[in-house]
């Protein structure tokens, strides 16, 4: 599968496994898992060519590790970023002292007032390093990196979870814990 097809198929899988499984008639379980054979069959019935080998390649090569198989390899799910209600069963974890959030300048005034909100997703997404936050913010324009005092938040009783692909998740970051980064 060439890089262009991998990227297109990965975007489609993100849509189906994170936001709209119903567009191909797929049902996720309460933890966001889909049966691999059913996913492949439903994709093919919608005119999207997808084999198990191609799915394996997408899971292995996705630079953000957006997808994961269960231990037996019979089910697949998105690692995080859902706008539909799923329970990822992630354990609460103590975050590092600082985490980072990439955005663009147009959103900064609202963030300074309201903090970071999960919006249509289930969680606010935070990065462990500035480089990742720069990439995230750069998808929509010139990136602005916000530094989140996550260690202080945790001490104040906020809960954090670490997704399978290394993204830190929390429900809300109040403005008082945010400072401008790079």
TrEMBL record:
Claim: NAD is one of the keywords in the record: yes
Keywords associated with the record: NAD, Transferase
A GO BP annotation: tRNA splicing, via endonucleolytic cleavage and ligation
InterPro entries, per database record: Ptrans_KptA/Tpt1, RNA_2'-PTrans_C, RNA_2'-PTrans_KptA, RNA_2'-PTrans_N
Gene Ontology MF term list: NAD+ poly-ADP-ribosyltransferase activity; tRNA 2'-phosphotransferase activity
Keyword field contains Magnesium: no
Coiled coil start-end: none
E.C. number: 2.7.1.-
Free-text function comment from the UniProt entry: Removes the 2'-phosphate from RNA via an intermediate in which the phosphate is ADP-ribosylated by NAD followed by a presumed transesterification to release the RNA and generate ADP-ribose 1''-2''-cyclic phosphate (APPR>P). May function as an ADP-ribosylase.
NCBIfam families: PRK00819.1-4
Protein family (similarity comment): Belongs to the KptA/TPT1 family.
HAMAP family linked: KptA
PANTHER family for this protein: PUTATIVE PHOSPHOTRANSFERASE, TRNA 2'-PHOSPHOTRANSFERASE 1
Name of the protein this chain belongs to: Probable RNA 2'-phosphotransferase
Biological classification of the source: Bacteria, Pseudomonadati, Bacteroidota, Chitinophagia, Chitinophagales
């Amino acid at each position: 599968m060439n890089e262009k097809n991998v990227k297109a198929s990965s975007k489609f899988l993100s849509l189906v496994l994170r936001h709209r499984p119903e567009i191909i008639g797929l049902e996720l379980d309460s933890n966001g898992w889909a049966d691999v054979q059913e996913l492949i069959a439903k994709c093919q019935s919608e005119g999207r060519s997808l084999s198990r080998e191609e799915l394996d390649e997408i899971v292995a090569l996705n630079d953000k590790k957006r997808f994961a198989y269960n231990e037996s390899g019979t089910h697949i799910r998105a690692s995080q970023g859902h706008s539909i209600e799923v329970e990822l069963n992630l354990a609460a974890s103590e975050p590092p002292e600082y985490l980072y959030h990439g955005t663009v300048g147009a959103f900064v005034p609202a963030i300074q007032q309201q903090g970071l909100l999960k919006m249509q997703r289930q969680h606010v997404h935070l990065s462990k390093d500035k480089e990742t936050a720069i990439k995230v913010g750069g998808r929509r324009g010139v990136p602005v990196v916000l530094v989140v005092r996550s260690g202080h938040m945790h001490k104040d009783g906020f809960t954090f979870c670490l997704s399978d692909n290394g993204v830190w998740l929390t429900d809300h970051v109040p403005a008082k814990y945010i400072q401008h980064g790079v």
